[in-house]
Amino acid sequence: MRIRSIVAAGLVAFAAWSSPQPLAGQQSGPAIMAASRSMVTRTELQAALDELQRGLASSGYSSAIRGAKRAEADVIRDRLTEGDIRQGDQIKVDILGDPGLSTTYTITPARTLTLPAGVEILMRGVLRSEVQDYLTKEFKRYIVDPSVTATTFVRISMFGALNKPGFFAAPASMLLSQEIMTDGLGPANNVRWDKSTIKRGDRVIVDGPAFEAAVRQGLTLDQLNVQAGDRIDLAAKPASGLFFRILGAVTALGGLIYLVRIVR
Q: Which residue has the higher pLDDT, 142 or 198?
């Protein structure tokens, strides 16, 4: 009976894991939901911000989530103003027929992309979804009708319960789960998704429940608004619980043997 109960509990847990669920605390209209997609456009972000502002100006949000929605609006404003490209990010540029300019560029502290001739292209204010069209326009100054393909990479670090911690340049369009498997070589056996986080400095930008949902739903680094320097922390289950239970059992057994000897 105990084995059947364990199996049943496992099936219930698996069903809960595999069922699609919204991110924790998500109460969003269509514009806000559209703005959560990978490689979101400026129009979609502005529509989401307008929707948030209408809700905050009315009784559309409860007091419990009003603060979270204000923070969400602030993030969107920052993206619309500052863009997504930050110092240390990389952009892989391929220009058909021009190998001299086809390379991977690292964004400078001034948030510029520096061409081999020393010419700088300002990337401040550019969204990831705009990079290819923006660079195509910029390269038209030097090349006739350029055919440009651009892939953006974000500089991140990953530590904790994974097989290869360290610093990586990951494609912004990469799924969070895929990045853990690719650069991190997979999670450790004792990983705890609901306690894992993404941090920006000392601030948690993706908490445990949202992290777990992001892995389950297949969200990308871009969808999570991961920026250069963000840290992915995979939490581990406490390793001491089983050890101390075994130690307690051994100690109790030793005490029982000692007591039997005394009685004899």
A: 198
Spatial distance between the Cα atoms of 30 and 88, rounded to a whole number of angstroms:
34
Q: Is 186 helix (H, G, I), strand (E, B) or coil?
A: coil
Task: Render pLDDT for 232-244 as a digit per residue (tens, 0 to 9).
Answer: 999 999 865 555 4
Question: 202-211 as b/e, with b when 16 or more CB fall inside 10 Å?
Answer: eeebbbbebb
Contact partners, residue 106, CB within 8 Å, separation at least 6: 88, 89, 90
For strands 203-206 and 191-200, give the pairing: antiparallel
Q: Considering the entire predicted model, what is its pTM?
A: 0.73
Cα gap 167→116, rounded to integer Å: 26
Of 206, 208, 202, residue with least CA distance to 237: 208
What lies within 8 Å, CB to CB, of 128 at 6+ separation is: 39, 84, 85, 152, 172, 222
Those residues whose C-beta lies under 8 Å from the C-beta of residue 34, and which sit 6 or more positions away, are 40, 44, 47, 48
How many whole angstroms from its chain centre is CA 169? 13
Q: Closest Cα partner for 90 from 106, 102, 108?
A: 106
